[in-house]
Specification:
Protein name: DUF5682 family protein
Radius of gyration: 36 Å
Structural class: alpha/beta
Organism: Streptomyces mordarskii
Number of strands: 10
Largest sheet: 4 strands, parallel
Helix content: 40-55%
Strand content: 5-15%
Distance between the termini: 99 Å
C-alpha cells in the first residue's frame, strides 16, 4: 500500500482500524507489507509483550484471547479477544513472520484491573462480555455502536452516560440507515483499500472528536496518554519507522502534540495490582454483539468467511450454506445454489450496492434454500453467520497448574472442549465414561459449569448419565478462580468440599454436598462431610429441613452399587433421618395454612419416594401389603401367579417402610381434629392407594367422609386436591373408578351457591392439571350419568363410551407373563397357563 498515511510528513504510521473488521485486517496487512516498519505497536495490555511470540506457533489457532487477572483475585479478570480476521491479529502475524518486534501500548492490565475494582456497584457498567463488566477492560471499539448500558473503560463513572457511536454518525452522514451496511459498502467490498482509506477514516475521527470531544469515553484520556508514552519510547529506539495499529477513534489523540510530562501527570497515582496474563481459547459466538461483548460484531462467521475466501465470496458462502442444510437432511441441490447466487446479485444491483452483502445473501438463502421457513434459517444464522468455532492455544502457553491438570485429564478421557453445544451419553459401567462423569461432577463442584446434567432419552437406570456440554471462554476464568483450592481437579474439589461442609448452615446443604462428593468420587472429603452431616442432623429438629435433606441422602446411598463406593455410613444416617421424620411429621402437619400445607405435601411426597428407594437399597426390596388392609389384588388369576411375599421387617429399611405406611394411614384417617389440612389427609390416602396399602373400598369410605355434608366446602375441596390433584394420575383414577367420580360429582352438586366461589379456584387448579384426553373422558362419564350402584367398572357394569361392557378375564390374564417379565420376575415360575387359569 504505497503512500500509507502518517500522522505527520515524517512520523509513525498510524493505522486506525475497526476491531474485528476483515476489511481493516486486509488493509493493515497490505500497509505493513508496503512500508516494512521496524516495529509494530498494537493496542493491548503491555504485559502481553512476554507471550506474544506464542501467536506464531502452529498450535495457536484463532479465535483466541489474552486473559489477564489479578494474582490475588482471579475472578477480577479481563479479556482481549482476537479473531483470525482481526486487524491486530493480522499485524501480529505479519510482524512475527518478518521478525519485527511487537509491542502492546494500551494501559497495563495491572492498572485497568485495579481501576475496575474501585468502581462502586451502582456505577459499574452493565455486562459487555463474558464476565463481570467491571472486570473486562477490553480494547475500546472506535467504530462500533456502544449502548449506554454497555461496557465503559475501567474506572468509568456512571453507566448511564451517553456515548457517541462513530459508525452510526458516519453512516447517517452518508445517507445510510444501517451502520453495518455502510461499513460493508465502504470498507469490506473495496478490497484492501489504500492510503486514502486510512486517511479518510482518520480525518472522520478527527472531525467527530472535534464535534463531540471524548464522546462519553472519559477514561480514554488516560489510555491515550499511556499510548503516547509507549509510542515515544518506540520512536527513540526505532526512529519513525514504527507502525501503530489501534482503534480509529484513538488516531487523532496519538497525533496530538503533547509533552511527556503532561502524559505522565495523567497517569500519576493510578491504582495498581499484580496481574498475570495468558492466552486462552475464544469462540466466534463470544465475538458476537448479542453475547453482550462491547466490541462485538453482528456476524463473526460471515466476517471470517470474507477474510479467508480467496475469491467469489458469495458463491463460496452459499455453497457452505447448502452443505450445512444437506447435512441436516434438508433437500438442497446445486440448482438451488445457482438460483440463490443470482438472486443475491440481483438484490445487490437493485439496492445500489457494489457487491452482495450479508443482507442480500440471507434474503436469497431464505427465499431459495429455506423456501421461506424460519427453522433452517435459524440454523444457518447460528452455525454460519455467527459460527461455533473454538480456538486453540499451544501447550507451551503459560497456564495455572489447575488448568494444565484439567487439559491433561481432558486429553486422557478423550473429552475435547467444543463451542457447539452437544449431548454426551455416559455408561458408568465403562471406566472411561465413569472417569468423564467424575471429572464433570468435580468441575461443577468447583463452579466450572462445562456440562450440565440432563434427562436421558434412553435408559433411566442409575448407570446412565446424560450431559449437555458447551465450553465457554469465561470458564477459563472460573478455572483460574478454582486454582486457590488446589493444583489438580481432584485436590481442588476435595478441598472445596471440605470447606463447604464446615461452613454449611443447613442440613440440606450438607446432604446435597455428600451426594456431589459421591458423584465426583471425592473419598478424601467424605469423612469431613459425614461428620458435618451427623452433627447437623442431631441438632436440627425441623421436620421440613429433615425432609429436604433425606431425598439427596437416599440417592447417594443408591450410587454405591454403580460407582463402587461404600455408602454404609450414609445409609445409617439416612435411616436415622427417616425415623425422626416418622416421629415429627404428624404433629408438624397440624394447624398449617394453605401455603404451609402445600409445602408440607411436597415434603411428604419426597420422603415417600425416598423411603421407597431406601427400602430397595436395603436388605429387603419391599414388603407386601399388611393383612387386613384389603390391598391384595382380587384380579390375580391364580395363587401361583401372585408375587410371593417376603418376610416383612427383615431389615431396617423394610420395617421403616411399614412404619411409614402406618403413619400415612393415621394421617389419612384423621377427621380434622386436631386440625390436619385436608390437602395432607387426601395426599396421604392417595399415596397409600398407589402403594396398594389401602383398599379401594377404604379409599371410597375416606372420600365419602371427607366430602360429607358436615365438612366445610373449602376443606373438602382441599382434600380432593390432595387425593386426585397434581401430576399423580388422579384423573385416570376417576376414569377407572366411577364410585370415586360419583362421590365427587354428588359433593359438587351439593355445594351451596354462596360457598361455590370459594372452592372454585381449588377445583380449577386440580382439574386443569389433567391431560386434555382425561378431562374429555371425565366429561363424557359425567354426561352419561352414574354407573349402577355398587359397580366400579367391574363385570356387568354399564359400558362407558369407548370401553367394553366389563373386565375380560381372558385378555387380562394374557398380559400377566409380560408384566412379570417387565418387573424382572420369572414370567412363568410354575408352568402357569394364564388362559387355563382364566377358565
Amino acid at each position: 500500500m504505497t503512500g500509507a498515511p502518517r500522522a505527520r510528513a515524517a512520523g509513525p504510521l498510524l493505522l486506525g482500524v475497526r476491531h474485528h473488521g476483515p476489511g481493516s485486517a486486509r488493509a493493515v496487512r497490505a500497509a505493513l507489507a508496503a512500508c516494512a516498519p521496524r516495529a509494530v505497536l498494537i493496542e493491548g495490555p503491555p504485559e502481553a509483550d512476554a507471550i506474544v511470540r506464542l501467536a506464531a506457533e502452529k498450535d495457536m489457532r484463532p479465535p483466541v484471547a489474552l486473559l489477564a487477572h489479578a494474582a490475588d483475585d482471579p475472578g477480577r479478570a479481563g479479556f482481549w479477544p482476537l479473531a483470525g480476521f482481526s486487524p491486530e491479529w493480522a499485524a501480529i502475524q505479519w510482524a512475527l513472520a518478518h521478525e519485527v518486534p511487537v509491542r502492546f501500548i494500551d494501559l497495563p492490565a495491572a492498572n485497568s484491573l485495579a481501576m475496575s475494582a474501585k468502581q462502586t456497584p451502582a456505577a459499574a457498567p452493565a455486562p459487555a462480555g463474558p464476565s463481570d463488566p467491571a472486570a473486562l477492560p477490553g480494547p475500546a471499539t472506535p467504530l462500533e455502536p456502544v449502548d449506554p448500558g454497555e461496557q465503559a473503560a475501567p474506572g468509568a463513572g456512571s453507566a448511564e452516560r451517553l456515548r457517541v457511536d462513530p459508525l452510526s454518525v458516519l453512516a447517517g452522514t452518508a445517507g445510510y440507515d444501517d451502520p453495518e451496511r455502510w461499513w460493508e459498502d465502504v470498507i469490506e467490498h473495496r478490497g484492501t483499500g489504500g492510503a486514502e482509506a486510512f486517511t479518510a477514516v482518520a480525518e472522520a475521527m478527527e472531525a467527530l472528536r472535534a464535534e463531540y470531544g471524548h464522546g462519553g469515553h472519559e477514561d480514554d484520556a488516560v489510555r491515550e496518554a499511556h499510548m503516547r508514552l509507549r509510542l515515544r519510547e518506540a520512536r527513540r529506539e526505532f526512529g519513525d519507522e514504527v507502525a501503530v495499529v489501534c482503534g480509529a477513534w484513538h488516531v487523532p489523540a496519538l497525533g496530538e502534540r503533547t509533552t511527556a510530562t503532561a502524559d505522565r501527570k495523567l497517569l500519576k497515582g493510578l491504582p495498581k495490582v499484580k496481574a498475570e496474563i495468558s492466552w486462552v481459547p475464544w469462540t466466534h459466538r463470544r465475538l458476537a454483539r448479542h453475547s453482550g461483548y462491547g466490541a462485538g460484531i453482528t456476524s463473526p462467521g460471515w466476517y471470517d468467511h470474507l477474510f479467508h475466501a480467496p475469491d467469489r465470496p458469495v458463491e463460496r458462502w452459499l455453497t457452505k450454506v447448502a452443505g450445512l442444510l444437506r447435512a441436516e437432511d434438508f433437500a438442497v441441490s446445486s440448482a438451488h445454489v445457482i438460483e440463490a447466487v443470482r438472486l443475491a446479485e440481483t438484490l445487490a444491483a437493485m439496492r445500489g450496492r457494489p457487491l452482495a452483502g450479508l443482507a442480500e445473501t440471507l434474503d436469497a438463502v431464505r427465499a431459495v434454500l429455506c423456501e421461506g421457513s424460519d427453522v433452517p434459517m435459524a440454523l444457518v444464522w447460528d452455525r454460519l453467520v455467527v459460527g461455533d468455532v473454538l480456538g486453540e492455544v499451544p501447550e507451551s502457553a503459560p497456564a495455572a497448574p489447575l488448568q494444565r491438570d484439567l487439559t491433561r485429564t481432558q486429553r486422557s478421557l478423550r473429552l475435547k472442549p467444543e463451542a457447539l453445544e452437544r449431548e454426551l451419553e455416559l455408561d458408568l459401567r465403562k471406566e472411561t465414561d465413569a472417569g468423564r462423569s467424575r471429572l464433570l461432577h468435580r468441575l461443577r463442584l468447583l463452579g466450572v459449569d462445562w456440562g450440565s446434567p440432563t434427562v436421558s432419552r434412553g435408559s433411566t437406570g442409575t448407570f446412565r448419565e446424560t450431559w449437555r456440554l458447551r465450553w465457554e471462554p469465561e470458564l477459563s476464568v472460573r478455572v483460574a478462580e478454582a486454582g486457590v483450592w488446589g493444583t489438580t481437579v481432584l485436590s481442588a474439589a476435595t478441598a472445596k468440599a471440605e470447606t463447604e461442609a464446615r461452613s454449611a448452615k443447613g442440613l440440606a446443604e450438607v446432604t446435597e454436598l455428600a451426594e456431589r462428593c459421591l458423584l465426583g468420587a471425592l473419598s478424601g472429603a467424605l469423612p469431613v462431610v459425614m461428620r458435618s452431616l451427623a452433627d447437623r442432623a442431631a441438632l436440627d429438629a425441623d421436620v421440613g429441613h429433615l425432609a429436604q435433606a433425606l431425598p439427596a441422602l437416599v440417592r447417594s446411598v443408591r450410587y454405591g452399587d454403580v460407582r463402587g463406593t461404600d455408602t454404609a455410613a450414609l445409609g445409617e444416617v439416612a435411616v436415622g433421618l427417616a425415623e425422626r421424620i416418622l416421629v415429627g411429621l404428624p404433629p408438624a402437619c397440624v394447624g398449617l395454612d394453605a401455603d404451609g400445607a402445600a409445602e408440607m405435601r411436597g415434603h411428604m411426597e419426597a420422603v415417600h419416594r425416598a423411603i421407597g428407594l431406601l427400602s430397595e437399597s436395603g436388605p429387603e426390596t419391599g414388603t407386601q401389603p399388611e393383612a387386613g388392609t384389603g390391598a391384595e389384588p382380587e384380579t390375580w388369576p391364580a395363587a401361583e401367579a401372585r408375587p410371593q411375599p417376603r418376610a416383612a421387617g427383615s431389615g431396617a429399611a423394610g420395617g421403616l417402610r411399614g412404619r411409614w405406611a402406618a403413619m400415612l394411614r393415621s394421617l389419612a384417617g384423621r377427621d380434622g381434629t386436631p386440625a390436619t389440612p385436608g390437602l395432607i389427609r387426601g395426599r396421604a390416602a392417595r399415596l397409600l392407594l398407589d402403594d396398594a396399602r389401602l383398599a379401594e373400598d377404604e379409599a371410597a369410605r375416606l372420600m365419602g367422609l371427607a366430602l360429607s355434608p358436615g365438612t366445610e366446602p373449602p376443606e373438602a375441596a382441599s382434600w380432593i386436591e390432595g387425593f386426585i390433584g397434581g401430576g399423580a394420575g388422579g384423573g385416570m383414577l376417576l376414569v377407572h373408578d366411577e364410585r370415586l367420580l360419583g362421590l365427587v360429582d354428588r359433593w359438587l352438586i351439593s355445594v351451596p351457591a354462596e360457598a361455590f366461589t370459594d372452592v372454585l379456584p381449588l377445583l380449577r387448579r386440580t382439574f386443569s392439571a389433567y391431560d386434555t384426553g382425561v378431562r374429555r373422558t371425565l366429561g363424557e362419564l359425567v354426561r352419561r350419568g352414574p354407573a349402577a350402584e355398587g359397580h366400579s367398572g367391574g363385570q356387568g357394569a354399564p359400558a362407558a363410551p369407548g370401553f367394553g361392557p366389563g373386565l375380560d378375564p381372558h385378555r387380562a390374564a394374557a398380559v400377566v407373563p409380560t408384566v412379570r417379565l417387565l418387573l424382572g420376575l420369572d414370567p412363568d415360575p410354575h408352568g402357569y397357563d394364564p388362559m387355563e387359569a382364566a377358565r
